[in-house]
Amino acid sequence: MVVILKQKAKKEEVVNLIDWIKKQGLDVHVVEGASKTILGLIGDTSKVDEDAVRANDIVENVRRISEPFKAANRKFHPDDTVVEVCGRKIGGGNFQVIAGPCSVESKEQIKEVARDVQASGAGLLRGGAYKPRTSPYAFQGLRAEGIEFLLDAKKETGMPIVTEIMSAAHIELFRDVDIIQVGARNMQNFELLKALGTLNKPILLKRGLANTIEEFLMSAEYIMAGGNENIILCERGIRTFETATRNTLDISAIPLLKQLSHLPVVVDPSHAAGLTSLVEPLSKAAIAAGADGLIIEVHNDPKHALSDGAQSLTPQQFGEVMDSVKRMVEFEGKHF
Amino acid sequence: MVVILKQKAKKEEVVNLIDWIKKQGLDVHVVEGASKTILGLIGDTSKVDEDAVRANDIVENVRRISEPFKAANRKFHPDDTVVEVCGRKIGGGNFQVIAGPCSVESKEQIKEVARDVQASGAGLLRGGAYKPRTSPYAFQGLRAEGIEFLLDAKKETGMPIVTEIMSAAHIELFRDVDIIQVGARNMQNFELLKALGTLNKPILLKRGLANTIEEFLMSAEYIMAGGNENIILCERGIRTFETATRNTLDISAIPLLKQLSHLPVVVDPSHAAGLTSLVEPLSKAAIAAGADGLIIEVHNDPKHALSDGAQSLTPQQFGEVMDSVKRMVEFEGKHF
Amino acid sequence: MVVILKQKAKKEEVVNLIDWIKKQGLDVHVVEGASKTILGLIGDTSKVDEDAVRANDIVENVRRISEPFKAANRKFHPDDTVVEVCGRKIGGGNFQVIAGPCSVESKEQIKEVARDVQASGAGLLRGGAYKPRTSPYAFQGLRAEGIEFLLDAKKETGMPIVTEIMSAAHIELFRDVDIIQVGARNMQNFELLKALGTLNKPILLKRGLANTIEEFLMSAEYIMAGGNENIILCERGIRTFETATRNTLDISAIPLLKQLSHLPVVVDPSHAAGLTSLVEPLSKAAIAAGADGLIIEVHNDPKHALSDGAQSLTPQQFGEVMDSVKRMVEFEGKHF
Amino acid sequence: MVVILKQKAKKEEVVNLIDWIKKQGLDVHVVEGASKTILGLIGDTSKVDEDAVRANDIVENVRRISEPFKAANRKFHPDDTVVEVCGRKIGGGNFQVIAGPCSVESKEQIKEVARDVQASGAGLLRGGAYKPRTSPYAFQGLRAEGIEFLLDAKKETGMPIVTEIMSAAHIELFRDVDIIQVGARNMQNFELLKALGTLNKPILLKRGLANTIEEFLMSAEYIMAGGNENIILCERGIRTFETATRNTLDISAIPLLKQLSHLPVVVDPSHAAGLTSLVEPLSKAAIAAGADGLIIEVHNDPKHALSDGAQSLTPQQFGEVMDSVKRMVEFEGKHF
Asked: Which residues form the DAHP synthetase I/KDSA domain (chains A, B, C, D) (predicted)?
């Protein structure tokens, strides 16, 4: 950590600041420049509160040099983490496609979609039971009943299920869910993250709409700090000025996350673009950039979908996308 | 609502779509253009699911013409809402300053700050008991004990208190809190919003980092749909490419929110800029743009603050800012 | 084009507006809704000035339904445009890699890089003679002499050259340049675009830092409206809140541009990320998403580069990237 | 400047780097941390090329500590610059309103608007002769004839004129223009900036759509480096994800620019919001935040304006805004 002092800093104030830093177990090197003085902090700075340092009257700025995350950091865990659920592996060369409708609408619907996507090669079934909707007047999901329907579909097909949690109060209802998804809007719902950290169950953590890669990894760190290290990171597009697509898929996030962290990375091309015609090219691009999996929306009757129909594929379209996906996964030397 | 059809739409498909829309209780006018056909939907479209319409194969795009919020909409409630708490009014010409530290750190600290900010003219006391922090290793707040300390400070000074909630599970602990704050990261924590909708207590709702004005009002609508209409909207800066300030204060949001909604609007200049030197000019600008109040961070010892010290004012600096604020409020014809 | 009227619009005013629109050669259909009236404009609306319509007192909003670009529009030119220069083709299944240093620094340097990148499979040579630099104190390029050195390198290797123009006043100096590049900062330098429209020479048009896909295509339209239809579009990253990469590569822009337009699309992974370690994964992703070419920075001595060294590959690194690129191009069924 | 080295850096490489830096006339202090080594560069680093340093294999990152601008920097010129033209002063407590139509459309139009805005208190007349339009099919301005009409209006009213230049090739036509405006899209048209640096005439420099405050000041530095120090900075809104307003007025830029630089700052509330109803509140907010002037669009017949009618005020609306503006300017202790 580098602390840049203001030009007007008095000698006595600088000495006081250095003492205060040293009391936190760090060593300090002073560099006096032509116009400014900087302090180099030496030691484990991951627990130093940048803001507390910055609050000092004589401090102009603080620059962190090491990453503030530890458990999620590849430097300390060079090998890829492989998340395994019901025999399906994600990460370390293992690739999975998670598919299903935005919302679970009925027992028949979810079973039918499950059979369809399984036939095309999807390894896990997704479906929303609790739905985060911008409008209080929009369909909010079947909630507990939706999870029951997902479990029915699992019983029939054997596919492990992935579904989104919106509150720590619902954790008990998710005890049979295979992978719990944290949506983009809850990426910094820290109370929820802490609660999930106490579970022994994989978490699919989606990147927030306007969160940096560092914040994303810090949210994974929240869960891992609680003891749950089974995290799958999910890039799903960020919010920018561009309106031609619903969000802007940050394709660079994939190789960057893989460099910075050992956790597997999956991509959601459906929400990233909000356009069915982009699901195939974005899926291929994600695999080429190093993704460990995809999560794709499929609906057996998109035109009557109760949410997000615009970006859902029909089972037939999904089959065509999967043909491409399989070829690209093989080309990249990964395996299902 | 206007539905734009694809060029390739077949007559039969168009007829089916029109039938389906009519079944939802709406009337449809067809406009056949040179290259495209558009449908004009007539009736109460606030509950029509845009995505369900867009999911139809022959639909190219859907444009909403009326705002999707009702309870928060000034069109249906032309008069300003005035939120009142312990005799302090916000809105409708009434102005309030809410001040206090980012985090409650001790009983003495919060009492001292309370006395200081009250002496300078603040009407309400703020202080974080539950703290949303990016890092799991940063100070997380005194939590329940922090609320106790705030209540002690209230007992001594008579100032109503404002503090942030991070989970619906904590609501019981907030029963004596005067105004419950929802932070930017929880603006779309819909389960929390629903729970707050059942209370009979004012809610200070902060705009999310990357949320549009419409989404902001839809989150207010979530709370109001549950029956709680005591909402104070808070603009606190949005995330943009500019890094010279922590966030970009969206000053235009103030007059726009006042035009679109009857709810009072307060501004947080401390978080918006993240720089103490900008608190005064941004406070003045906010009042000039029509704000009904301010929420300002004040710490009695910013250099040892446990969070967000960089943007906190000392009590003396706050006193100077308040001199400016009072003159500007008076100039604008509002009253404390 | 759909015109949404304000609720308070008087009948007489509406009639006047309709008359004014009809005078511009369009037909108007009126849809009277529950709370609002909308007008559907029928005919060739590409030349109607949205702002002029919006300026009318009774108009609340205007929505364009058809794209405002014609010459660049795939609807009117379904076949891919293939740009050809010195026997190298770009577009329509033909793929090219353009490589070279950010800045031309000396005759020897550019010749050496040219030989190196040609040996690895690059088809065209790039190099900056005129350099847009944020600081007036930074190296501004060798200018006219830089073009001479590029032409020397072309003479020796036979590689066509691509270099950036910064002012219409320099056009005469670019008469022997094979492809003229317009940089991101000049994407809306309309006087320059108009001047380039009168040439009979391919233009590589880079997307601006904060320009939408529609604005990008409108800038291509500027050049095409002047008669020069040899345009290559270049996605090079947009500016967002994320700071881990220099820019955010908008990977979705590739398939979208290919859908909307018949022009070839190349990608600049070097500027998009600003990190050498991302050049390979982003190059592969771009090809997988449908790109027709790449433009990559290569420097024979990056640590002494006079500009943008951080993102330049060494010739050896470039060779390794090219191995990946060639395999991916072949996998996608395209050819050099 | 602080240079952070990679963990793997070898001693010999570090010595070589230090030698190379010292050859550029700087001194280097080495700080060896627990996991990383940093170098503190001492001396005048404003001309050190960050990218050249970053290009070194062993460099992980470079952080600049001093601002890279000199001529525009308040540290070296503590007193406010006052730009004066035909007796009108801007800056240092002097406030001016520049008003007029987006486009000059006819001699009568511009004269009429000039008389109207002068009667309401505007000190300078603006009007676009050369118009940067997104579409090549939109009205491009009257060009040279437009400047003639502006000069006619000046002759009649005595108001100095402000108009936008789009190419250095047109400079001769601007010889009688009082203040030359550089539009947002040309803020980094460096060839144009250099050409304007050789003139002895005030330049109104608008901030680019997606340019940081530092880049904005570096563009001012370009003009100043050429010898022309008469620069007026203009904040006109930046591009963000919010679509309710055309751009997002960055109100914090006003006090920040005033802190960092001695140059006067004016605000364009018309383009910032794109909505006439926001011109008054944003004008007041800008003055409260410390602006030295405003530039406002006024049209005598907005509904038939040839460009940007949606945001133009009628002369009567402008008169009402000016009443507010005058009171606020007086309240702030500034004078016309």
From this structure: 88-324
* pLDDT band, residue D128 (cuts 50/70/90): very high
Q: Do A309 and B51 touch (CB under 8 A)?
A: yes
Residue B272 lies in a domain: yes
3-class SS at D126? strand
ipTM: 0.91
Tell me the mean pLDDT in the region D216-229: 96
| CB proximity A290 to B under 8 Å | no
Is pLDDT at C4 greater than 90 in this prediction? no
Show residues of chain D in contact with B241, CB under 8 Å: 210, 212, 238
Which residues lie across from A114 on neighbouring strands? none
In whole angstroms, give the CA distance from residue B225 to residue B236.
24
Sign of CA dihedral B308, B309, B311, B317: positive
Is C7 exposed, middle or buried, given 0-12, 13-18 or 19+ CB atoms closer than 10 A?
exposed
Structure tokens at B276: 């103490």
Tens digits of residue pLDDT in C150-185: 999 999 999 999 999 999 999 999 999 999 999 999
As a whole number of angstroms, the distance between CA B31 and CA D183 comes to 40
DSSP H helices in chain D: 11-23, 50-54, 107-120, 144-157, 190-197, 213-225, 253-260, 269-273, 279-288, 315-331
pLDDT, residue D304, reads: 59
Q: How far is CA A308 from its chain centroid?
A: 20
- For the stretch A57-82, pLDDT in tens is 788 888 777 788 989 999 889 999 99
For residue A139, which of B50, B41, B18, B20 has the smallest C-alpha distance?
B50
Contacts of B11 (CB under 8 A, 6+ apart): none
C76 contact A CB<8A = no
C183 and C103 within one domain = yes
Place of tokens 């430097």: A75
Question: Which CATH number does the domain housing residue D10 bear?
Answer: 3.30.70.1140
pLDDT for A116 = 97
> Could you tell me if residue C130 is inside a domain?
yes
Residues of D in contact with C190 (CB under 8 A): 132-133, 136, 166, 185
C-alpha distances (whole Å) from D26 to each of A33, A97, C127, D37, D136 are: 10, 55, 30, 18, 51
Strands A161-165 and A88-90: unpaired
Q: What is the average pLDDT value for chain C, to the nearest integer?
A: 92
- How confident is the model over D95-109, as pLDDT tens digits? 999 999 999 999 999
pLDDT tens per residue across span C309-325: 567 899 999 999 999 99
**For residue B75, is it within any domain?**
no
* Number of domains chain A contains: 2
* DSSP one-letter code for C177: -
- Residue D215 touches chain B, beta carbons under 8 Å: no
**What is the average pLDDT across A256-281?**
96
> A309 touching D, CB under 8 A?
no
Same domain, B161 and B246: yes
Inter-chain touch A65–D243, beta carbons under 8 Å: no
**What range defines the domain where residue B26 resides?**
2-63
Cross-chain residue pair D36–A65, CB shorter than 8 Å = yes
Pairwise CA distance, residues D319 & B222, whole Å: 41
Q: Is D49 within 8 Å of C138 when comparing Cβ atoms?
A: yes
Q: Is residue B180 one of the residues assigned to a domain?
A: yes
CATH of the domain at B89: 3.20.20.70
Strand D231-235 to D265-267 pairing: parallel
Residues of D in contact with C310 (CB under 8 A): 51, 54-55
Question: Do residues A265 and A294 lie in contact, with contact meaning Cβ atoms separated by under 8 Å?
Answer: no
Q: How many CB atoms lie within 10 A of CB D315?
A: 18
Q: Pick from C80, C58, C76, C60: which is nearest to C68 by CA?
A: C76
